Amino acid sequence: MTSQLTLPRPDDWHLHLRDGAMLQAVLPESARDFARAIIMPNLVPPVVTSADAAAYHARILAALPEGMTFEPLMTLYLTEDTDPDDVAAAHASGLVKAVKLYPAGATTNSASGVRNFDRIRPVLERMADIGLPLCTHGEVTEDHIDIFDREAVFIDRVLDPIRKSTPGLRVVMEHITTRNAVDYVREDSSGQLGATITTHHLILNRNHILAGGIKPHYYCLPVAKREEHRLALRAAATSGDPRYFLGTDSAPHTDPNKLSSCGCAGCFTAPNTMPLLAHVFEEEQALDALAGFACENGPAFYGLPVNRETLTLTKQDSPVRFPEQIVTEDGPVTVFDPGFDIFWKVT
Ligand code: NCD
Ligand code: ZN
After folding, report:
1. Is 94 helix (H, G, I), strand (E, B) or coil?
2. Exposed end of the chain (fewer CB within 10 Å): N or C?
3. Which pLDDT does position 2 carry in this prediction?
């Protein structure tokens, strides 16, 4: 039985760090275990221009506690007014590693997202030319589309047409939650498609959110689906297929904002993601695939080196206790609790 695992230091290919007091409080929770992260741009107002990204990058580095190392990989929030030249300059300078597409209204702070996909065509074409990846929040937003179907419908009606009309565009399907998405990635032969999978979507199905009482801390977007989809995600993550990699989508909200009559979407998994993943991969008898998923496949997609430092996980004899909450000046933020004992610990 494996009781110790040493991996290259992992990266998080989808992370919400927020700003101000929240940034200050949550950044160390990621920087402790992760070397780099793709930083989501859905601030209020969003990170739209290269100047916004440079300023946010500086705020993140200023919030990093002394002695910690962490490299924020910045993204731009795609709007219908995004300037292709600004995007190209941000990429050429090395500051920006991806552009994020939020359909307008899809999730937290997405009001400035895209309504008319024809209007972003010039930006997408420039991105294809320069090799800059598009990260997609893959859900349609029409009221009449059932929330559990929004990812599958996005693939058919938005993603596939965009990819067909923009050959060469590198795309990351972010936080996939369905067998449909897993199949779409597997069947692709372009070499230009990847997908991130979160920690919590490997653990939760929709019963965990709704059966036996509503669990606001398990509510995130895209919402967790049926068990068959969770199993498809587990199979994909542990398959060794390099197109699937870790993006935690760790998305902190204060407890008052989660525990409300209209609660925010997001699971805060930064503090305990690596122990949870070791648990999941061990359950799937795939501990040897964890380095690929969390440490190697993401850098390969983004054309970056694998981290040279290492991270060691050790299996304990008794359950590991993680903090239930972290304290921020904005209020407490509850740490994701999988609902079962975890024996792995970063040591
Ligand atoms: C994210 C957030 O809170 O910013 N929430 C979430 O449930 N994942 C937004 C997002 O990535 O959809
Ligand atoms: Zn997210």
Report:
1. coil
2. N
3. 73
95 CB burial (10 A radius; 0-12, 13-18, 19+): middle
pLDDT, tens only, 91-140 = 999 999 999 999 988 777 888 899 998 999 999 999 999 999 999 999 99
Secondary structure (H, E, C), 277-315: HHHHHHHCCCHHHHHHHHHHHHHHHHCCCCCCCEEEEEE
Q: How far apart are CA 287 and CA 306, in angstroms?
A: 18
Give the burial class of 287: count Cβ atoms within 10 A of its Cβ; 0-12 exposed, 13-18 middle, 19 or more buried. Answer: buried
* For ligand 1, atom 4: residue with the closest CA: 108
Q: Is the peptide bond before 28 cis (omega within 30 degrees of 0)?
A: no
Give how far the C-alpha of residue 96 lies from the chain's centroid of Cα atoms, to the nearest Å: 16
Residues in the chain: 347
pLDDT in tens, 310-342: 999 999 999 999 999 999 999 999 999 999 999
Q: What is the CATH number of domain 4-346?
A: 3.20.20.140
Question: HEC states along 157-196?
Answer: HHHHHHHHHCCCCCEEECCCCCHHHHHHHHHCCCCCEEEE
Across the beta sheet with 134-136, what order do the strands follow? 12-15, 36-39, 71-77, 96-101, 134-136, 171-173, 193-197, 244-246
From the CA of 12, the nearest ligand is 2
- In whole angstroms, give the CA distance from residue 138 to residue 150: 8
CA of 249 to the centre of ligand 1 (A): 7
Residues within a 6 A CB radius of ligand 1: 16, 42, 107-108, 137, 220-221, 249, 251, 265-266
* CA 285 to each of CA 235, 289, 290, 294, 318: distance values in angstroms, whole numbers, following the listed order: 11, 9, 10, 16, 20
Annotated catalytic, 337? no
For 252, list phi and psi in degrees, rounded to 5.
Answer: -70, 135
Pairing of β 71-77 and β 310-315: unpaired
Residue 20 to residues 25, 30, 31, 215, 330, Cα–Cα distance (Å): 9, 16, 17, 28, 9
Ligand nearest to the CA of 17: 1
111/98 Cα distance (integer angstroms): 20
